[in-house]
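User: Predict Magnesium transporter MgtE's structure from this.
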Amino acid sequence: MDEKKTFDEAAEEIVSLAGEKHFKTIREKLLVFNSPDIAEILEEVLEEVGITETVIIFRLLPKDISVEVFSYLPSDDQVRIINAITDTEISYIIDELDFDDKIDVLEELPANLVDKILEKTPKNERSLINTFLNYPEDCAGTLMTPDYISLEQSWTVRRALRHIKNVGMDSETVYTCYVKSAGRVLEGIVSLRTLVVSDDDVLISDLMHTDIVSINVYEDQEEVSEKFKKYGFIAIPVVDNEKRLVGIITVDDIFDVIEEEATEDMERMAGVLDDSDTEYLDMSVWQQVKNRFPWLFFLMLSYILTGSIISTSEATLASVPALIIYMPMLMGTGGNSGSQSATLVIRGLSVGDIELKDALRVLWKEFRISFVIGLSLSVLNFVRVMIEQRGDPLQVQIALTVSVAMVAIVVAAKCIGSMLPMAAKKVGIDPALMASPMISSLTDMVSIGTYLLLAGAFLGVIG
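Assistant:
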């Protein structure tokens, strides 16, 4: 807590100094922090003070530190800094960035600026960069780096370790080495630990593991993140359709993907259609309206149907006005019940705990759960209604209507909430779209229809 408070105070002081243009003092204060912290402080300076002061501070940092700091900045801030510095500075930053970070930056820059940078890039590296930039968005190819350690089967441990010493500083990781054939086909993997504890004259072919978990270069990034979570690796090799090794993805690169996927699911569960990476405060009001309006409009139409159901039962409600009191409670309970089930099933689908083949098992489990919950709530409500409606000649009928409706609504809502996400996945729609807003709308219609139907049956009044 004290450490966080100290950092926040330091950041606030540096922002204040930036406004007063005390740049030399700022440099001294910044250099006591590590690169991610400096990047976080620069974000605040950029937001609170402006791009001019931020660029001055950025230029005052030692070159090696400035490159590291740049790699930790959000893509929008990277682009703003790139647009404010010289071509020479841009070239230096791009040259010094790790390859995967370099690709991330180039993907965000305007095409004319990318062309200018590539003109000054060596031909072999330019060809490699263009290959990476042309991979489809959100596939494994956009996450990988070609900076890995490759070995040959015929090498001895002595030669392999010597090779690692020569190229290790330029590699993304040295902990796992990849064994390729002459045609670049991935043949096996061997860990640095195995190499270090093995005799110098042992051949790599005798040490390598051939049961390889790999990723196809066109595999979706969400599936990539699932493999990292499943196997717990720090790096996974990426191969093309001919099983040739084209790069590796390290666990630090997948953190951003996991965050993006979680954010996307949250937005869809809330009925927000946002495909951009723009932060909330940086997004215009009009863009926010466009993201939110379509789903709200669709859900509004569904409530028109709910209103129609109510209007067809005017006679029932007019005969027994007490029924109206319990409508909000039943609708709310139905919506909440459905949302509970939908949330759990969506999470199960996303982490692989639930598969489409489990649909009947899920339905049976949710039916039993909902029946017990519905029955428990109905008993409580029966007592409540009997107390509230004492003296009314229809006291028992109203209590029965509400109680039986509660059981039916909870069972129906939980079954709908559990099955809709699975149905969505079956037809290729993101299950997250079947979350709270959609479930609430559907269960409201089911709740009202069920309640009024039961009212007609128990009270002998047909609307």
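The chain has three domains: 2-142, 150-251, 280-459.
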